[in-house]
């Protein structure tokens, strides 16, 4: 696998990269909200890209239907959060690389459909670098390889500041997806890069994601310890 350098773009705006390990969902959610609020108050603050993994957790979009859960959310069971992103239920777990871009779309393009397609483009380019042929499915959001959904996207945009983002299944235990109808799509299986590239690990994909994100959004990645 190729691990590209972060491209340096002429006159590109900086984007802080917060490259974390495994972080509880509620903690990452709180950090996102803080970063978004800071950028509402001070729009000149730089964009941010958070890359991390989560312990096992299910999340529901703002208007997601409980019928897509195969367990009783009123009973003690899997960790579950209803959050302000769009989309239906999804599952996060170790082995899945999650990206949370906190972008001011006034610097980019004030168009939500454009933004969704750009996130898909990032994932498609990552797959290409890994030697895989990814694809879109008309009328749906996300990326697929050989009919299996390997990348999911769910966003929230407020005053043109983005939060939530994308999840790329690198080498997760896919069993957890069996407890839901992923993204409310019953007839399309969930897959992972590991099914096509045995032995692949999340840390080998992080640099590729950061590089392709920089290229697609025209930013300069600046590593940060914040």
TrEMBL record:
<keyword id="KW-0012">Acyltransferase</keyword>
<dbReference type="InterPro" id="IPR020605">
    <property type="entry name" value="Octanoyltransferase_CS"/>
</dbReference>
<feature type="domain" description="BPL/LPL catalytic">
    <location>
        <begin position="43"/>
        <end position="221"/>
    </location>
</feature>
<comment type="pathway">
    <text>Protein modification; protein lipoylation via endogenous pathway; protein N(6)-(lipoyl)lysine from octanoyl-[acyl-carrier-protein]: step 1/2.</text>
</comment>
<protein>
    <recommendedName>
        <fullName>Octanoyltransferase</fullName>
        <ecNumber>2.3.1.181</ecNumber>
    </recommendedName>
</protein>
<dbReference type="InterPro" id="IPR004143">
    <property type="entry name" value="BPL_LPL_catalytic"/>
</dbReference>
<comment type="similarity">
    <text>Belongs to the LipB family.</text>
</comment>
<feature type="binding site">
    <location>
        <begin position="152"/>
        <end position="154"/>
    </location>
    <ligand>
        <name>substrate</name>
    </ligand>
</feature>
<dbReference type="InterPro" id="IPR000544">
    <property type="entry name" value="Octanoyltransferase"/>
</dbReference>
<keyword id="KW-0808">Transferase</keyword>
<keyword id="KW-0963">Cytoplasm</keyword>
<feature type="site" description="Lowers pKa of active site Cys">
    <location>
        <position position="149"/>
    </location>
</feature>
<feature type="active site" description="Acyl-thioester intermediate">
    <location>
        <position position="183"/>
    </location>
</feature>
<dbReference type="GO" id="GO:0033819">
    <property type="term" value="F:lipoyl(octanoyl) transferase activity"/>
</dbReference>
<dbReference type="Pfam" id="PF21948">
    <property type="entry name" value="LplA-B_cat"/>
</dbReference>
<dbReference type="InterPro" id="IPR045864">
    <property type="entry name" value="aa-tRNA-synth_II/BPL/LPL"/>
</dbReference>
<feature type="binding site">
    <location>
        <begin position="85"/>
        <end position="92"/>
    </location>
    <ligand>
        <name>substrate</name>
    </ligand>
</feature>
<comment type="function">
    <text>Catalyzes the transfer of endogenously produced octanoic acid from octanoyl-acyl-carrier-protein onto the lipoyl domains of lipoate-dependent enzymes. Lipoyl-ACP can also act as a substrate although octanoyl-ACP is likely to be the physiological substrate.</text>
</comment>
<feature type="binding site">
    <location>
        <begin position="165"/>
        <end position="167"/>
    </location>
    <ligand>
        <name>substrate</name>
    </ligand>
</feature>
């Amino acid at each position: 696998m190729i691990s590209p350098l972060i491209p340096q773009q002429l006159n590109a705006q900086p984007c802080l990269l917060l490259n974390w390990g495994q972080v509880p969902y509620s903690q990452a959610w709180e950090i996102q909200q803080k970063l978004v609020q800071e950028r509402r108050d001070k729009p000149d603050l730089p964009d941010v890209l958070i890359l991390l993994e989560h312990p096992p957790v299910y999340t529901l979009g703002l208007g997601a239907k409980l019928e897509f859960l195969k367990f009783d959310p009123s009973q003690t069971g899997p960790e579950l959060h209803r959050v302000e992103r769009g989309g239906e239920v999804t599952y996060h777990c170790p082995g899945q690389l999650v990206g949370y871009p906190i972008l001011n779309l006034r610097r980019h393009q004030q168009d939500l459909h454009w933004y969704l397609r750009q996130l898909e483009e990032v994932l498609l380019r990552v797959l290409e670098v890994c030697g895989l042929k990814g694809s879109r499915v008309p009328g749906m959001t996300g990326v697929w390889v050989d009919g299996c959904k390997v990348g999911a996207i769910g966003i929230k945009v407020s005053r043109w500041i983005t939060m939530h983002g994308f999840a790329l299944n690198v080498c997760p235990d896919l069993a957890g997806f069996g407890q839901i109808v992923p993204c409310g799509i019953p007839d399309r299986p969930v897959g992972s890069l590991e099914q096509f590239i045995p032995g692949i690990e999340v840390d080998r994909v992080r640099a590729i994601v950061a590089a392709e994100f920089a290229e697609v959004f025209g930013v300069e990645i600046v590593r940060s310890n914040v």
